[in-house]
Amino acid sequence: MDWEVPLFDLELTESERAAVLAVIDSGWLTAGPKTAEFEEAFAAKVGSTHAIAVSSGTAALHLSCLVAGLGRGDEAVVPSLSFVATANAVLYTGARPVFADTAGNNDLTISARDIARRITGRTKAIIVMHYGGYPCDMESVQALADRHGLVLIEDAAHVPGGSLGGRMLGTFGHFGAFSFFSNKNITTGEGGMIVTDDDEAAGLLRRLRSHGMTQATWDRHRGHAFSYDVLDLGFNYRTSEMAAALGLAQLARLEEFNSARERLTRRYREALARLDGIEACFLTPRGTPAYHIMPAMLDEGISRETFMSKMREASVQTSIHYPPIHEFSYYRSALGQTTGLPVTEDVGAREVTLPLFPSMTDSQFTKVVETIARVLDAGRASREERGA
Ligand SMILES: *Cc1c(COP(=O)(O)O)cnc(C)c1O
């Protein structure tokens, strides 16, 4: 569909095009010098000792869970209000994801109090996700992880450039997993990054992303080695030089992107405050968010499905973040849990995500807000007519 206002639109310019073409001309396409440069630049940006580039955010989460030591018989507490990959990464290791509820219907991050209730003798890790680019209550979560000796992993897919108390998000945990999927704050098409300060873990992560081998192809190309050993059951989670070049060009524009997202978010908050029937989420966020998406809550009694189809009729794309993971068919049958997370279930039923991207124009913004006002008015009129 050709939306007048899409949920998200890419922001690629000549700098990205030139960077990718230069790699093609270089004659070396798989993980090599550009990848190393991207890793160094990313580590410097977030202030971590190591950054390990991988093929996706999901690969970043999977390797983080493996190196955290998760396996059969272990549990990891995770949010249900997240993208399914957060919980899948735990299942890949043989461990069991245990879902914790959402803090509230305006602060959509994981509830630290509910995490505490879910910790058992089998718990080995906590994975938090900075929903929509908004920092979780890391002070409470970190205290819990410390008290129980748990590994802390941040699903940082929404927060490149976000910080809390002067510290970059992704660096609070033992591992921070970023995604550069097409619709994230910065993109490489497909790609991800793991950040950590642990030297030994970093070595293991590098080996696991490339079949558990002791030498990379790039090392052999440079004549550093003729053969190699395989030390672990690894994967091919490598990235490409084209992706790394794109990532470097995008990383240089991260602040520009995030401040454009912030300006639009502030305008949305003001505009939605004047409307009845909808409320912007995160009215009082912690720290410095990365403003990844624009979540809002529709009042009870308003049909989200009708709202979203009326928006679609006006060529404005909206979305839902997220259908709760524990309600998916696969998860219902794999874990046998179908309910028990009241806040998450309420948010899952009433949340609607509005268009947000750095290149959004004034007329696109106005179109979204005017359409919301019109659709909510019409809904109110028809409910009154029915005497509801
Ligand atoms: C996008 C996303 C992922 C997965 O990243 P991919 O790069 O698409 O594998 C994981 N968690 C969250 C919260 C995401 O938004």
Can you give a write-up of this model?
The chain has 388 residues and is of the alpha/beta class. Helix content is 41%, strand content 14%. It has 14 helices and twelve strands. The strands form three sheets. It has a seven-stranded mixed β-sheet with strand order 1-9-8-5-4-2-3, sandwiched between helices. α6 (138-148) links the parallel β4 and β5. α1 (14-26) runs antiparallel to α9 and α2 (33-46) runs parallel beside α9. The longest helix is centred in the last third of the chain and has 24 residues, at 362-385. 47% of the residues are buried. The mean pLDDT is 96. It binds pyridoxal-5'-phosphate. Pyridoxal-5'-phosphate is lined by residues 56-58, 82-83, 85-86, 129, 155, 157-158, 179, 181, 192.
List keywords for this structure.
single chain, 388 residues, alpha/beta, 3-stranded antiparallel beta sheet, 14% strand, binds pyridoxal-5'-phosphate
Question: In short, what is this structure?
Answer:
By secondary structure, the chain is of the alpha/beta class.
Radius of gyration using CA atoms only: 22 Å
Bound molecules: pyridoxal-5'-phosphate
The DSSP helix count reads 14
Share of helix among residues? 40-55%
- Strand neighbour order, sheet with most strands: 1-9-8-5-4-2-3
Computed structural class: alpha/beta
Could you spell the SSE succession in H and E letters? HHEHEHEHEHEEEEEHHHHEEHHHEH
| Uncertain spans | none
The largest sheet, given as strand count, sense and whether it forms a barrel, is: 7 strands, mixed
Strand content: 5-15%
**What's the shape?**
globular
Tell me the distance between the termini.
34 Å
Mean pLDDT: 96
Total number of strands: 12
